[in-house]
Each structure stands twice: as structure tokens, then as C-alpha cells.
Write a structure and sequence with these properties.
This protein is mainly α. 79% of the residues lie in helices and 0% in strands. It is globular and about 55 Å long. This is Major facilitator superfamily (MFS) profile domain-containing protein. It is a multi-pass membrane protein. Pfam families: MFS_1.
């Protein structure tokens, strides 16, 4: 238990971050409909741009996640966690300020750009942080606790949305996202940095300040060569049958979940005239059921 108690700052950081991210989910459908199709409960444009957003974010995440993992191996988990946790603040701050059409489009574009780096990276880096600091025999328990923290944040975030106005929801979410970034930088100790990588991302000579001009192209090429390419990702999938099977299962599972979530909320809005309060009620029920199943 000593090792797990040492992760309390990571658990609190993840809770605050997920709380901020999840509490806006019940409200974003109403905001999208009001910005694109004011006064209506049906809007094809809202469904199309939401699907396009998810597709672009998914493709961007597929490219960025190996890079994030590679950089975290070199510079540490805390340094890389700082980036997505901080970037999450800016799209939320836009809607906290205003939810008119122009501000919604600004949020929409910024959300795509930031989510390509942020979507899933906080969870993945948290798992890597746990793996660095917990013995192999206790990692399964730590991963389970991490998942439970996420489910608890989902329940608390969506439940709080039930009692807040739309404007207050985004303001509180922005404040919680800022608090998670500050808390992480102040309290979370850095994880292990691997100084024994066979191919460092940045060569030691690059920071010398004075370098031979003939060697500069080689140094730049070395930086790019250490970045994971599409061939590297395919080779990783082929290196382990278990890993490739897990990746396939994860792909189809997330495909179904995201597709259902993206369409279900708009269907409930059009068919039963749901608003953020009813969405929050449904999400609390599913979140509580998920938390109980993980206990």
C-alpha cells in the first residue's frame, strides 16, 4: 500500500482533470444546437460537424500518441502531462466567456487542434507514470484504482452539471481545469526519466551552442529519425500478437462507443426534447453503474 499511497497526487490530478472534462459533456449538445440551429431541436449540421470533429481528433491522436510516449520516455511523465492538462483549459475558457456562434466556431477549431494531442494522452501518461512507480505485481491494482478514479470523476462531474446553469458549467469546468494544472505542477513528483535510450530524441551536441556547420544537417536528421513514423507504429503492432489483438479490440470498442455517444445525445434532443439536465441524469446512472462494476 505504500507504493499506491505515493500515487495520491497523481490520482487527485487525474480526478480534477477528468472532473473538468466530463462536466461539460451534458451541456455541449445544447450549446452546439443553440449556436448552429437556434430555437430548434433537430439539426443535421450539428451532427455532421460533431462527427467530423471526432474523426479528425481520432486520426490526429493516432499520429500523436506514439510521439507523446516517446517524448515522455526522454523528458519525464510530468513534463508531458503538463502539456495536455494545460491545453485543455483554452477551449473551455472560450465557452466560459461566450457561447455565441462565432465563439462556438473558435471553440470548435481550437478543440480539434488541442484534442489531437490531449485526447487520451493524459490517461496514457498516467498509466505510464503508475508503471514507473509501482512494482509489476501491484500494477493491476493501481490501474484498477486509476480507472475507478476516472469513473468517480465522471459521476461527480456530470452530477454537478445537473445543478449548474450552462454558463456556470463552463466557468466551473475552466476553473477546475486550471486547478488540476496548478496542483500537478506543485505537488506531483516527477517520474523516472530514461537516460539510457539507445537513440535520444535530441543529441547532446545540439545544446552546445557552437557547432560545426557541416554537422548541423546530421543533427537535424537525427532529431527527425528518432520521431516514430508510420512504419514504426506498424512494426510495433506486428511485434506482438497480443498487443495487436488488444489494439484491434480497443479500436472497435471505441468506434462503437464514440459513434453511439455522438448520435444518441442528438437523437434524444430531437425525439424527446432532452436538455443538459436530462443528459446529466442519464450519464450519472451509467457512471454509477460503471463505478460499481469496477469496485
Amino acid at each position: 500500500m505504500g507504493k499506491l499511497s505515493g500515487l495520491r497526487h497523481l490520482f487527485m490530478t487525474l480526478f480534477l482533470h477528468n472532473f473538468a472534462s466530463f462536466m461539460v459533456i451534458p451541456a455541449i449538445t445544447d450549446v452546439t444546437m443553440a449556436a448552429l440551429c437556434p430555437g430548434r431541436d433537430e439539426c443535421s449540421l450539428a451532427i455532421y460537424i460533431s462527427g467530423f470533429q471526432q474523426a479528425i481528433i481520432g486520426l490526429g491522436s493516432f499520429v500523436m500518441m506514439p510521439l507523446v510516449g516517446n517524448l515522455s520516455d526522454k523528458y519525464g511523465r510530468k513534463a508531458l502531462l503538463t502539456v495536455p492538462i494545460t491545453l485543455t483549459i483554452f477551449p473551455l475558457a472560450i465557452l466560459a466567456y461566450s457561447r455565441t456562434r462565432s465563439f462556438f466556431y473558435a471553440y470548435y477549431i481550437l478543440k480539434i487542434l488541442t484534442a489531437m494531442f490531449c485526447e487520451g494522452s493524459v490517461h496514457c501518461l498516467s498509466l505510464a507514470y503508475v508503471a514507473d512507480n509501482v512494482p509489476e505485481g501491484r500494477r493491476a491494482s493501481a490501474f484498477g484504482i486509476l480507472s475507478g478514479i476516472g469513473s468517480c470523476a465522471f459521476v461527480c462531474g456530470t452530477l454537478s452539471t445537473r445543478f449548474l446553469s450552462t454558463a456556470s458549467t463552463f466557468q466551473v469546468s475552466t476553473a477546475m481545469a486550471m486547478l488540476s494544472a496548478v496542483y500537478m505542477r506543485v505537488f506531483l513528483p516527477d517520474s523516472i526519466i530514461n537516460d539510457n535510450l539507445s537513440t535520444p530524441i535530441i543529441s547532446e551536441g545540439k545544446s552546445d551552442g557552437v557547432a560545426n556547420q557541416n554537422e548541423e544537417p546530421d543533427k537535424k536528421m537525427q532529431v527527425f529519425k528518432t520521431m516514430p513514423s508510420m512504419e514504426d507504429m506498424l512494426a510495433l503492432l506486428k511485434s506482438s500478437l497480443t498487443f495487436s489483438q488488444a489494439a484491434i479490440v480497443s479500436f472497435f470498442s471505441n468506434l462503437a462507443d464514440v459513434g453511439l455517444h455522438a448520435s444518441l445525445l442528438y437523437y434524444l434532443k430531437a425525439r424527446f426534447h432532452f436538455n443538459k439536465d436530462q443528459f446529466a441524469d442519464l450519464m450519472v446512472i451509467t457512471g454509477v453503474a460503471g463505478t460499481i462494476s469496477q469496485a
